[in-house]
């Protein structure tokens, strides 16, 4: 049997008052009553039950927590005790109307209601009402919720939104507006109206592509920017935009995606700034910078100009370039401006493309900005790349030229946060100008080097035309000579090093030329260096070249003979005269094909074949410590011994007629014969000066001949005749007497026109060496 409502309330009230836990005691009300009591007590809101007269008949413990009254203080009191005094009279009226037509009224109906605590404080509440029964015994439940905290939060949010709206509306220099997911405008501030000329009612609901030039709309740029913002969270751009009147302005635009709690894109914010004046000023600066840099084609001067231009835009502690080195496939550091304590890798150092900030910027073709170092988000350790550990911020910007990226511009600072995103814009544009200027300077340097190389080749060829010994072909049919020619044919097609051995004047250079002409390098240079005729202090520069300022008197860059002979052949005559201190460098060229110019650490690789010659005994020099053994072994891979003229006498007649034809044509003479006695005398002579001596003798004879018969001077014939083939004198004695005789005739003059060296067909240094060996003193003449 069920209880009536008054009985249920009474028993529930007893349970609530006597048992806070609402657990029924033996003999208490039925189970339904206990459940009702527990239900009221478990409610999160204050729960009161009011009778038809408006008096409280039941209240849960949450009511005391909210209002401050105990149950005993509330039971039997009119419900208006919980309402502020100014609303009590009105509430009695509304309560009467509700009792006549009771209905359920949920919370959140939009009414602004207030409650009053025992201490008199008033606070906002929400109330839901529900009738329990009808008629005379009707009861009504009221669930009362304290919404003070929520109201405070709502008010704070309202104030924040109001402040944001006022802030957005008051920012007149920035166009700030919202877009929906399709790109339609949903809000518009006064700054946007000022910049673009549209009022809000003219653009709300319109697609934002109307602000872009037609060519950008056709290319799909607006949609692409939204896609990028949705994918990356943000899209930055600079470009032309269109005002309402059709005029263009240069805008800086940032689009940011708005996401809900699930990460789904709900719209976009777009901030636009008119930077037309800034763009014009920047273009003027870049134009001035371009003109400044274009005026400097010398790399060193250009680097100084670059540093000055960078200083106008940003302060830094160090600036470097990292230029791609095709040979090593790495980046080579070039200092632009550096203090005494450097912060990046040392100048001319090589750094890898992988695992380095400059390599990352070069490969990605994107700037890399580090506001603070170290940065844990990068896949490499920036700190390990810096020699100066006090560097706190840096940026690396790719140098993009017409032919692609060829390096990076790198700036370093000892202060954190020196470089910002705004800096990257102008620095990137400056890097473009620097790339163009560097490209021009490097091209100019290549042209200068090529011009210098061509000038060197021209000077070299002119020297060759003036050389005192210049065979056009090898003349002879003797077996010793044929043996040498067979060796030339064997070794020429290879790239092996050749060492030509023989006395002075035997034609060692001619053999070297034959090796070159029969090789695959014949289309390239054959470069001759006489190591004995160049002063020791200049030989290194002659071979390897030097940079400007490398030593006193180095007023310009010079390309060395090894570089000049790239892909060709270099002939090192008198190689035994190379000083010991230069021999390791020559050995490196033989082994690694690499060397450095004087005044720089930049390694140059050359593809050159070395053919060396000497009239000295290199084996004895090695034993005496005057020549490196490892260099000797590298040079003598394929030795060729050129026989002296006295060992191929059957070739003397051919050589005499060859030289007669050569000099007679040059002097416009007609010489048809050689007296037999003259030829016999020429054949008997031991020729200490070998072919060169014979050539000079025939040249003098052609000069003196007036008819068609070769007229060798009687004194020359007498000198030749004095040395019979059967003489018991040694070759050295004959050579000594002959040199002394010529020195007497020239009054001791060794070099220059008409000197003993010229008459004997020798180099001046070779004659001095022979005189020292034979014990001949110049002072005796």
Q: Which homologous superfamily in CATH is the superfamily of the largest domain?
A: P-loop containing nucleotide triphosphate hydrolases
Assigned CATH architecture of the largest domain: 3-Layer(aba) Sandwich
| Average pLDDT figure | 81
Helix/strand class: alpha+beta
Alpha plus pi helix count: 28
Task: Tell me what portion of residues adopts beta-strand conformation.
Answer: 15-25%
Low-confidence stretches: 1-29, 339-346, 465-472, 720-729
In total, how many beta strands?
Answer: 24
Q: Output the CATH topology of the largest domain.
A: Rossmann fold
Major sheet strand order: 12-11-10-15-14-13
What does this structure look like?
This protein has 781 residues and is of the alpha+beta class. The chain has six domains: 1-37, no CATH class; 43-146, PAS domain (Beta-Lactamase); 153-274, PAS domain (Beta-Lactamase, 2-Layer Sandwich); 281-444, Beta-Lactamase (2-Layer Sandwich); 467-641, P-loop containing nucleotide triphosphate hydrolases (Rossmann fold, 3-Layer(aba) Sandwich), CATH 3.40.50.300; 648-780, Orthogonal Bundle (Helicase, Ruva Protein, domain 3). It is 42% helix and 18% strand. The strands form six sheets. Strands 12-11-10-15-14-13 form a six-stranded antiparallel β-sheet, with helices on both faces. Strands 2-1-5-4-3 form a five-stranded antiparallel β-sheet. A five-stranded parallel β-sheet has the order 17-20-23-16-24. A hairpin with a 4-residue loop joins strand 1 and strand 2 (56-59). The longest helix has 46 residues, at 421-466. It is rod-shaped, with a radius of gyration of 52 Å.
